[in-house]
Write a structure and sequence with these properties.
five-stranded mixed sheet; four-stranded mixed sheet; phosphoacetylglucosamine mutase activity; A-D-PHexomutase_C_sf; PGM_PMM_IV domain-containing protein
């Protein structure tokens, strides 16, 4: 029987264990034991340098994450975490992952954070995670789900390659149309990783992820995890049981420990954070080093009121307007005028509005694309013409 306060991912973990005893013990204590064991094992096979520092300031959104992350902090002394916004009275009030992501500014009580001090934020029920910091110019810098996915994918593909298993495992990163264009470019062109785009919604990412042996799936809002197939575990365990191979497979050990650390049932801010910290330690990176793996393209998001959202029909991944076809042709013509231009429209599933996403090499061009696409939508359909602010 489940009782007491839990994070949403902890509840998902317990339900999974009830249905699959091999996954772990179906209790909160079982959750912590699994995390601690995996963390200790991964730390043992993780190299250590001088640039990475274990200090972290964590915005808990005044939610359940503050109470539930404390036991991990107490048991794992390698990470020096300062819990902030850890009261229950002001849930998500000017704090939390959603606030940081949407407002693109520091949450309350972070005004004294110094340049390049690493900060992270949970949302209220601790299933979303974003990072942020203050740069040398005193500006706010966000590291969202796209870069968490890129970090995980980089580590995984390097371990798979180092173990000589590139031809054995299928590996992919699952994104939505809202993933930054340069994140997709980094994964495909620099890392050589297969990338798949699906419709918005974590259930759509999960549905695609299970087609691969290993699949990293994150939404830009910081909700995501990594899927590891039964075939992955069968192959890894077979290799590890061969004593004549075990000494030359540190990459295999890392893959297995990494998979056990993550809550593979659902996005879990607590285990995702621990995984990020272990990988930053592995690469001996500062938060600025991590952020510099690629530069995000400036992007704009808007909403338009429409008479009937059902007048729009979209492709399976929701990035191409199938009907009215004229609108997609107009969007194609608009983005072709701008460097790294990309845009799509997507009708809401619940109200008569259409969302517009636009990105380009400069903020000015991203705004220009959004303006032109907005006009195109109004020209093609009967619109109210009002943009919701």
């Amino acid at each position: 029987m489940i009782s007491g306060l839990l994070t949403t991912p902890q509840l998902h973990y317990i339900v999974r264990c009830q249905n699959d005893s091999a996954y772990g013990s179906p209790t909160e204590a079982g959750y912590y034991a699994k995390v601690h064991n995996a963390l200790s094992s991964l730390d043992f096979v993780t190299r250590c340098g001088k640039a990475y520092t274990p200090t972290l300031y964590l915005d808990c959104a005044n939610g359940v994450g503050a109470q539930k992350f404390s036991p991990i902090c107490m048991r794992w002394s390698i990470l020096d975490v300062t819990l902030m916004n850890d009261q229950e009275a002001q849930l998500n009030d000017q704090c939390g992952a959603d606030y940081v992501k949407i407002e693109k500014k520091f949450p309350r009580n972070f005004d004294r954070i110094q340049a390049f001090e690493r900060c992270a934020a949970f949302d209220g029920d601790a299933d979303r995670l974003v990072y942020f910091y203050r740069d040398a110019s005193n500006e706010f810098v966000l590291i969202d789900g796209d870069k968490i996915a890129a970090l995980f994918a980089k580590y995984i593909i390097e371990q798979v390659s180092g173990a000589g298993l590139s031809d054995v495992f299928t590996v992919s990163v699952i994104q939505t149309g809202y993933a930054n264009g340069n994140s997709t470019k980094f994964l495909k062109e620099e890392m050589g990783i297969h990338v798949c785009c699906v419709a918005t919604g974590i259930k759509n990412l999960q549905k695609e992820a299970i087609k691969y042996d290993i699949a990293v799936y994150f939404e830009a809002n910081g909700h995501g995890t990594v899927y590891f197939s039964p075939r992955f575990y069968d192959i890894i365990r077979t290799i590890i049981t061969h004593k004549d191979e075990i000494d030359q497979t540190i990459e295999i050990k890392r893959l297995l420990c990494f998979s056990k650390l993550l809550n593979t049932v659902v996005g879990d801010a607590m285990t995702d954070l621990l995984a990020v910290e272990m990988l930053l330690k592995h690469y001996d990176w500062t938060v600025e080093d991590w952020n510099s793996i690629y530069k995000e393209l400036p992007n704009v998001q808007r909403k338009l009121k429409v008479v009937n959202r059902r007048a729009f029909q979209m492709s399976a991944d929701e990035t191409t307007c199938v009907k009215p076809l004229k609108l997609q042709r107009m969007i194609n013509a608009i983005v072709s005028k701008y460097s790294d231009g990309r845009s799509f429209v997507r009708p809401s599933g619940t109200e008569d509005i259409v969302r517009i996403y636009a990105e380009a090499a400069t903020a000015h061009d991203a705004e220009a694309i959004a303006n032109e696409v907005e006009v195109a939508v109004c020209d093609v359909l009967c619109m109210s013409g009002n943009v919701e602010k």
